[in-house]
TrEMBL record:
The keyword Cell membrane applies. The lineage of its organism: Bacteria, Pseudomonadati, Pseudomonadota, Betaproteobacteria, Burkholderiales. Belongs to the MscS (TC 1.A.23) family. The chain crosses the membrane at residues 221-241, 262-283, 303-321, 373-392, 413-437, 443-461, 508-527, 547-566, 587-612, 618-637. This is DUF3772 domain-containing protein.
Length: 817
């Protein structure tokens, strides 16, 4: 059909649509529909394509899951064929969808563009066909886009799987390679593989532009100035800061052991701080005008951590050895031993920095297994040789000192165990390097270095904590005197507070050290360690109790202020209010004790509330307490409840004279668990409160009586004149100054027995507490008067066996006396 014929046919169709749009012949619409159906390609439908895309995505997710959970290289190798088959399926799907897209586009080109607005509209069948074709084309575009994304994801998955295989192979502790004595082990150092050269060259292409930009003519002066400044801060600045901190410690701190520990901490911190500042200045010198790529930024971050770790090693070595001022040295090391070990911390830090940098370059460039093992072997060899040489040299110096008759430094059992453990680790690492287990040797050496860092830091901070507590709570320093005046405590309480706080600080530092050993490693920064500590503190147990780290400070402040407030109110009650309101000392003591107990209970509840403890989550604590009470704490709880009953009902009070279970004395104090009873010989008996409630108790002074009774029972012979004895006894009682005239003394005929008569003489004294002393005085006086009147006391009859005769002899003769 020519172009003119096509134009004529279009005009005819437009005319027909204008004339009778609703009466368009059905034959034309049917022919158009049949033509459109004939043009559709016989390929995948939309539902089939969607199902195939979903299957491919599911297969990718399954491969990722298998790769992440693979425990051996064999399983990872088995996933290669699966990924290859998956890539083939994606290519087939793309090959099936692409022709369909081309056919639809050809059909749309045949229909041409839709008529412009304001022109003659096209036939409904043509418009519907165009809409269907556009919808199908949009579906195919989406399917092709998903297919392209799946193909790209599969390519990335293949790269990640290959990297994971290399990483798993590198990190296998049991991976055996060439020994460090083998030339093949050192071969990559002189002739690296082509693949590694290519990767290192690609990484070099990222570093060189940064260096060129920093050293171009316009920036060269600033870069050089910043580098000189970094070197000056690292060397000269460190010395100046150390001297300034030493001057502060020597002039501002008290003359105690705190000076030594503070000086050691200042030495370590100044080394780390100046190194961090120098690293930051050097970093700024090279990157101030350069946008770092992610790989290079990662490398510089790891190198900064490595530099700070090396600086910490050197700083701890200088702080603990302290060869310039031996009197400032914290550990008990002999001077020759410290001088012999002086260069090794710095040498170890420098060599670790170089070897660690090489290892980080291998990691970023993703070098081959052989090159990676070479870097790890160098790191392990550096650590083994440096620490081993330090141990050998220190032992040699100790041997020389012992041979010269000088006694080496005393070593604790724990220090000996640590020395033996380090020695065994060094020998094991060296053996692994010689055999070819490079990854295992690297693991041991890095763990050894991290253990030494944590151990030295723990020792330094523990000594500092102990010295700070002793100086802060010392009664000879201004801080201790302020605490005594503020809280009203004595010297013994200051010593107790120093011991308790020192123990708590040491325990907390030990906990942090354990967490650092378990969760950290070589290159761990304080920020990483703090995050690990917060993860531990924010575990399920504390999270279930709703304890947040930010609430701990509020709880500590509330507890401190609450204790001070309770003590202040207690002193005010004891000294001012209660003496004016209540005149009885026993009642005052009971009220103050009850106030203190209730106050401390409320303070504990307030502290737990500030910590955010949810009481509904304490069911496990209540269950544990119930079991403990049932088995072992029932006596304590019983005594505690009995103490509360004694303080409220007051069957006895402080100052009462009581007698219970053969114990008689004055109550001096009623505690929560037990009561203190002071005897006549000034000794104290501790009686559990439950016995005062459950047993028969004699309270001599409960009725507030101020009188006591002095009663004597005397037995005389039957031939004694009772009236004469009565008068003698009454005269002795009346003449005693302690006996009261009212009520008057009296004598009672108590008993008439075959062995004599018993008279009971009674007199009243001013206080029950002098009854015993008065009875003793009366006995002395009565015996004196009876002897003067030649009146004797009755002697009980006894039967004595003088001898035992043999059988058949006379019977025994009893002797009566």
């Amino acid at each position: 059909m020519s172009r003119l014929s096509r134009l004529a046919l279009s005009l005819v169709l437009v005319a027909l649509s204008f004339l009778t749009p609703a009466a368009l012949p059905a034959a034309i619409a049917a022919d158009a529909a049949s033509d459109a159906a004939a043009l559709q390609p016989a390929a995948l439908t939309h539902a089939e394509a969607v199902a195939e895309l979903k299957r491919l995505q599911t297969e990718q997710d399954r491969i990722k899951q298998l790769a992440s959970g693979a425990t051996s290289s064999t399983k990872l190798d088995g996933l290669d064929d699966t990924i290859q088959q998956l890539a083939t399926d994606v290519d087939k799907l793309a090959a099936a969808l692409t022709p369909q897209r081309a056919q639809l586009q050809a059909q749309l080109d045949v229909l041409g563009p839709p008529p412009a607005a304001g022109t003659t509209p096209e036939a409904p069948a043509v418009a519907q066909q165009r809409a269907d074709l556009n919808a199908r084309r949009a579906q195919l575009d989406g399917e092709l886009k998903q297919t392209a994304e799946g193909k790209e994801n599969i390519a990335n998955l293949k790269v990640q799987l290959a990297r994971l295989q290399r990483s798993r192979m590198k990190n296998q502790l049991a991976l055996r390679s060439e020994s460090i004595l083998s030339p093949q082990f050192w071969a990559p150092l002189f002739k690296p593989p082509a693949e590694d050269q290519e990767r290192l060259g690609a990484f070099k292409d990222q570093v060189v532009p940064m260096l060129q930009l920093a050293w171009q003519p316009g920036q060269r002066g600033t870069t050089a100035l910043l580098l000189v400044l970094a070197l000056a801060v690292w060397s000269l600045g460190r010395r100046l800061i150390e001297r300034a901190l030493a001057w502060v410690c020597l002039t501002r701190l008290p003359e105690t052991r705190l000076r030594r520990s503070a000086l050691a901490l200042a030495t370590a911190l100044s080394t780390v701080a100046t190194t961090a500042l120098a690293v930051q200045i050097a970093y700024t010198a090279f990157t101030r005008r350069y946008d770092l790529p992610p790989e290079l930024q990662d490398l510089l971050g790891e190198l900064a951590k490595l530099m700070l770790t090396s600086a910490l090693i050197a700083g701890l070595g200088r702080a603990l050895l302290c060869t310039r001022h031996p009197s400032w040295r914290l550990p008990a090391l002999a001077d020759p031993v410290a001088l012999a070990m002086k260069p090794f911390p710095t040498v170890l830090a420098g060599l670790l920095l170089l070897a660690g940098t090489l290892e980080q370059l291998n990691r970023i460039a993703d070098t081959s297994v052989q090159v990676t093992l070479l870097g790890r072997g160098l790191v392990s060899l550096v650590v083994v040789l440096t620490i081993g040489a330090a141990l050998l040299r220190a032992n040699r110096v100790r041997t020389v000192l012992a041979a010269a008759g000088e006694r080496p430094e005393a070593r604790a059992t724990l220090a000996g165990m640590i020395h033996a453990g380090v020695t065994i680790t060094i020998i094991a690492s060296l053996g692994a390097l010689l055999v070819g287990y490079i990854s295992f040797a690297r693991f041991l050496t890095y763990e050894l270095v991290w253990f030494d860092i944590v151990l030295c830091s723990l020792y330094l901070l523990t000594q500092l904590t102990r010295d700070v507590c002793e100086s802060l709570f010392s009664a000879h320093h201004a801080s201790g005197r302020v605490i005594k005046q503020l809280f009203g405590v004595g010297d013994s309480h200051l010593e107790q507070a120093a011991t308790v706080l020192s123990g708590m600080g040491a325990s907390l530092l030990l906990l942090v050290a354990v967490i650092a050993l378990l969760t950290g490693g070589f290159g761990t920064t304080p920020v990483d360690l703090l995050n690990s500590l917060l993860r531990v503190l924010g575990g399920d147990k504390l999270r279930s109790l709703n304890i947040m780290p930010e609430r701990i400070m509020n709880a500590v402040i509330a507890l401190t202020v609450g204790i001070w407030l309770l003590r202040s109110v207690r002193r005010w009650l004891d000294a001012e209010l209660l003496p004016k309101v209540c005149m009885e000392p026993g009642l005052r003591v009971s009220l103050i004790t009850l106030f203190s107990n209730v106050g401390y209970v409320l303070l504990v509840l307030l502290t737990l509330s500030l910590l955010g403890v949810r009481w509904e989550n304490l069911a496990w604590i209540v269950s544990a307490l119930s079991v403990g009470i049932g088995f072992g704490l029932q006596e304590i709880v019983k005594n505690f409840v009995s103490g509360l009953i004694l303080l409220t009902e007051r069957p006895v009070k402080v100052g009462d004279m009581v007698s219970i279970g053969g114990v008689e004395g004055d109550i001096r104090r009623i505690n929560v668990r037990a009561t203190e009873i002071q005897l006549g010989d000034r000794s104290t008996v501790i009686v559990p409160n439950s016995q005062l409630i459950s047993q028969n108790l004699r309270n001599v002074t409960m009725s507030n009586s101020t009188q006591g009774v002095a009663t004597l029972l005397l037995t005389f012979p039957l031939n004694t004149d009772p009236e004469q004895v009565r008068d003698l006894l009454l005269d002795a009682y009346r003449e005693n100054e302690a006996i009261l005239d009212i009520p008057a003394p009296s004598v009672t005929f108590s008993q008439l027995a075959p062995n004599g008569i018993t008279l009971s003489v009674t007199g009243y004294v001013g206080s029950p507490r002098i009854a015993t002393t008065t009875k003793s005085e009366l006995l002395f006086e009565i015996l004196k008067r009876l002897r003067a009147a030649e009146i004797s006391l009755s002697v009980p009859q006894t039967l004595r066996v003088e001898s035992m005769p043999a059988l058949g002899t006379a019977p025994l003769t009893p002797a009566v006396g």
